[in-house]
Structures are given as C-alpha cells and as structure tokens.
Amino acid sequence: MEELGIEYQPMLEDMISVKEEKYQKLNPNGRCPTIEDPNTGITLWESGAIIEYIIDQYDTEHKISFESFPEKYHTKQYLYYQCSGQGPYFGQAAWFSMYHHEDVPSARDRYRGELRRIIKVLDGVLSDKEYLVGGKCSYADLSFLTWCNIAPGILGADAEEVKQENPHYAAWMGRLLARPAVQKTLKDKERLAPPDKKYKLDHRVDEEEQKAIVEKTMRCSGATGCSAAASTAVQ
Fold it and tell me: What are residue 37's DSSP bridge partners?
C-alpha cells in the first residue's frame, strides 16, 4: 500500500493478541495479516489474497504489477511460492530458533536448512536479473521481504556465510530495503510496537510465556502466529 501511495492505518498485533476474540472476529484463523477496507467494505486475511486484492483494486497503473503476458502470471507464480514455500518454512525456522521453550536441534536444523535452500533458489533466479519479474520491482519481490529481512536473526552466526554464498540474493535484498516505501514501512512498524511487544531476534520464549501462548491457542482453536500488521486501507 505504501508503494501505491494508498492512505492506511496500520495496527500491530502480536502472538497473543491475534488469539483474542476481538481480532478473531476479523480473522478466525488467529494469525496476521488481516485487512479491512472501508472503501469496499471487505475484510480479508491470508497475505496472498490481500496482495492480490490490493493489486486488483488499487494498482490500476501497474506500478508494482504487470498487465502483459507472461509477466502477469510469473508474478503470481512467485507470490504463491512465497506463500507456500518461504512463509511456512521461515516461520518454523524462526519458531524453533528463537521462540520454542526448549532447543530441538532436529527441528531447528531442518527448517534452517529449508530457509537456506529457498534463499539459494532465489539467488539462482536472480543471477542474471535485478528483480524476479519483468525488470522492475513488483509485488512478487516485495512479498518475500518481511521474512527475508528477519532471516539473519533466524540464522544467527550462519547469516554472513549465507550472504556470501548468495550474492545475487544479497544485492536484491539491498535494493528492496533501500526503497523509500520499504524504509517507511519498517520505521512505522518499529514505532508502533511498544517495548513489551518487541520480540528480539535472540529472544527464546521461556516456559511461562510458552504456556500462555499454548493456552491461548488451544482456547481459540488455532495455531500461534507471527507478529505482523493488520491494516485498514483508506483512500
């Protein structure tokens, strides 16, 4: 939305608040993100659906999308790869590396391995291009950014090695992070998060925190989710 110049009101949720009744009235799955658009009256959850909606509804000039063939479908391809590949594996890598109350090496190593594999796939795709599709930054690129930006914290001591092994990926990340809209969004997220809601990259949830999350999850019949913004779009 920032890339398209749409006015919106971001609201930051955490792993506990998304299990509350107020939020689950918007998103029964109890995860982020969720969007409410008063212009059309729609409420949507699932990041892929939200991105496609924003593109269809607001990117009429195709600033970060394509009308041409095959680019229109290649951007969808990478969005679905992000939703089915990057998101789940990076999320589990983050959980077992930073939040799970005990160290489970087999789970941690499996998901970190998948994280590295996905980065390697992206590095290969980017070996002869600056962006994933059509020579410009599109929603395909931006969809990967949130998880890629926290990947160094998940990888810990291995982060620099991964960066050196994947120079095309690293350069791509540098280009994305330098975009003014991305910089503003990251600053807004940092500004919105109160101190007690900021989960540090080296933070491991203790048994009491884990118990609270699990109890809340069981009561709401959902799985724990990662912190993200639930945004309201206004024109």
Answer: 42
Q: Is the Cβ–Cβ distance between 156 and 199 less than 8 Å?
A: no
The crossing angle, in degrees rounded to 10, of helices 145-155 and 105-125 is: 130
165 SS3 class: helix
Sheet strands side by side (includes 42-45): 7-13, 228-234, 34-37, 42-45
Alpha carbons 47 and 34: distance in angstroms, whole number: 8
* Sign of the torsion formed by the C-alpha atoms of 97, 102, 107 and 110: positive
pLDDT-flagged residues of the chain (< 50): 197-205, 213-231, 233-235
pLDDT at 73 (0 to 100): 98
- Phi/psi at 43 (5° precision): -120, 130
Q: What share of the chain is helix, strand, coil (3-state, %, to 5)?
A: 60, 10, 30
Q: Which helix (H) or strand (E) segment is 142 a member of? A: helix 139-143
Dihedral angle sign, alpha carbons of residues 22, 25, 31, 35:
negative
Please provide residue 8's backbone torsions phi and psi, each rounded to the nearest 5 degrees.
Answer: -155, 160
| pTM of the predicted structure, to 2 decimals | 0.82
